[in-house]
Amino acid sequence: MSSEEVFNRIAVLRAERGISRRDLATALGVHYQTVGYLERGEYSPSLYLALRIAEYFEVPVEVVFSLKPFPRLGSRS
Amino acid sequence: MRSRWQRYQREALEKDMAPAAYATRARRRVIAGLAAFSVALLWVDAAVSWFLAPSDLAVTINFVLLAIMLVIYLPAVTLLNVASRGTAALPARMLDERQAAERLRAVATGHRITFGLIGLALAAVVAGTWGEGDTARIPAAAVFILLLAIWLTHLVMPLIIVGWRMPDPVPDEDDERDEHDDA
């Protein structure tokens, strides 16, 4: 696992809002597989793309991306 | 005209062609290996031409090797292009940042490999003609095929590297939904 790994909640946000991978990819102007690789943590986006993703979901960027794993839903931390 | 062709190319590369053939990393690596093997046949062909040309035997071996090469090369390169969705084939403006970065990495690695191969070819030519001075001769067929081998290697190496490195693609949600519907 890379020490430069960036964790994200794109899949959660996408599922919560009922947006398909293709719709998100089209809105961001990227290939739908790129969204998949982002969700699987196999690709870390540029700052520009990260900001655009946060803007798309209308949340601050730190809600979508983190250097530490996000706590699981229902966990106390 | 050109942009229409590029759009057509992009759409064609989004359509799966024998998806089982490149569904896993191991299979994509086999295809990448076959593409590399087919290009290596051209290098072998150049060496054969050096020793045997001009002769009927050299012509026969040339055609046989070229035929085998094309039979392997064309499907392998097509499958790698489809598997990578044109990462190494489409113009940069049609790629997103991940694909562009992947292509840059592959081109840089491919450049180093091609650089090494050209160095080896140069060393082979120097070694093969050493001490012959002004009378040194290389058959034109060998020169032509060697240049063809260098050109094709340079062209296809980034694609081979992209195919070799590519992680397993994320299943399309439409396909996943279809599978659920079938179940």
Description:
The complex is a heterodimer of chains A (77) and B (183). Chain A has 77 residues and is mainly alpha-helical. Chain A has a domain at 7-59: 434 Repressor (Amino-terminal Domain). Chain A has helices at 10-16, 21-28, 32-39, 47-57, 61-64, and strands spanning 7-8, 65-66. The two termini of chain A are 23 Å apart. The model of chain A has no long low-confidence stretch (mean pLDDT 89). Chain B is built from six helices and no strands. In chain B, helix 3 runs parallel beside helix 5 and helix 4 runs antiparallel to helix 5 (140-165). The model of chain B has no long low-confidence stretch (mean pLDDT 89). Classes of the chains: A mainly alpha (77), B mainly alpha (183).
CATH uppermost class of the domain at 7-59 in chain A: Mainly Alpha
The CATH topology of the domain at 7-59 in chain A: 434 Repressor (Amino-terminal Domain)
Under the CATH scheme, which architecture of the domain at 7-59 in chain A would be assigned? Answer: Orthogonal Bundle
Query: What percentage of the residues of chain B does DSSP assign to strands (E)?
Result: under 5%
Instruction: Please count the beta strands of chain B (DSSP E, at least 2 residues each).
Output: 0
Supply Rg of chain A. Answer: 12 Å
The pair of chains with the biggest contact is: A-B, 20 and 12 residues
- Secondary-structure element series of chain B: HHHHHH
Distance between the termini of chain A: 23 Å
From N to C, what is the helix and strand string of chain A?
EHHHHHE
List the domain count of chain B as a whole number: 1
DSSP, total strands of chain A: 2
